[in-house]
Amino acid sequence: EKSGYENYMLKEIHEQPKSLRDAIAGRLNELTGEVVMPELTLTKADIDDIKRIVIVACGTSYHAGLIGKYAIESMTDIPVSVEIGSEFRYSANRLGHETLVIALSQSGETADTIAAVKGSIKKGARVLAITNVVGSTVSREANYSIYMRCGPEIGVAATKTFTSQIVIMYMVALYLGTMKGMLGAEQNIRMVAELKALPNKVQRLLENERYIMGLASLFRNAGQFFFVGRNLNYPIALEGALKLKEISYIISEGYAAGELKHGPLALITTNIPVIAIATQCATYHKMVSNIKEIKARDASVIAIASESDGLIDQLVDFVVRIPDSNEYIAPILSTIVLQLFAYYIAVFRGCPVDKPRNLAKSVTVE
Length: 366
Ligand code: M6R
Description:
Helix content is 43%, strand content 17%. It is of the alpha/beta class and 366 residues long. It catalyses: D-fructose 6-phosphate + L-glutamine = D-glucosamine 6-phosphate + L-glutamate.
């Protein structure tokens, strides 16, 4: 079943060109730039009624939710908040018919997310489920349901399902933005082309695996790690840190790079490894300033940067290059670098990557 791979996690990382291709298959029209999702039965009138969106999820799915917020707020005029399932279910949230709750869950069986969905329906909100398991509880309880089509994910660490969640969030954002008349056809067509080009870029990135493995070998004995990014790369920093702590048991922190000087910079000293996600986007130059602040404290910086970036080499110790792409697609490619990095560190440390201690694949108890 592992198709010749050492374990499920590595197999699932390598399945991403296919899982991403499946996530978009038949759902994007290249010529018109439109999203085709018959399962999303929200009419124009329904969408015009939506005054706010609340995304609810746990763990890695929560990080995909944070990306979803950036995308929906950029492509529509609907305000979005993102909440952790275990907090949302006990919060004094005021939900009603004008709220669309998006429940993101790979398994569709996470207890806190299920409770959030049930509570939201009771309060009159409409719920859109995005899960990977057909007929899962979250999908059954919701009003609308989109499936990720990733195939089973066995490794406890969420990998291929995270990247598909992001792509689906982008398609939902495009759909809502188009229905609200906020996106021009040209803009849609460009985004659709970027999404369609993604699977081949992932394939190309995976050919760089040995370099990432080499870096993991070099840093395998580090006691702690920092991951920093801005904008869409901030949730990716959180996700990189979660993946590393989950499977290698190394203490790792993810931060919005602009937040460093509000406290964590006190922890940055000589040789502390910092992974900086510095791909091309609106905040690239701000990120470069943050990297300079980090280097000034003599930390070791590994940057993830675009292939065409000619500046970054002079600033940092190591650079992992990803294929050039727009600001939405680059975070997906950076994620895969971080998945491989966490994977190899865990393997070098002799950790059981598919079944990390104390954790279960789906958290069906509170
Ligand atoms: O099945 P779900 O997406 O609802 O699971 C949520 C989290 O339990 C899950 O993403 C967890 O954080 C992963 N093990 C992280 O790799």
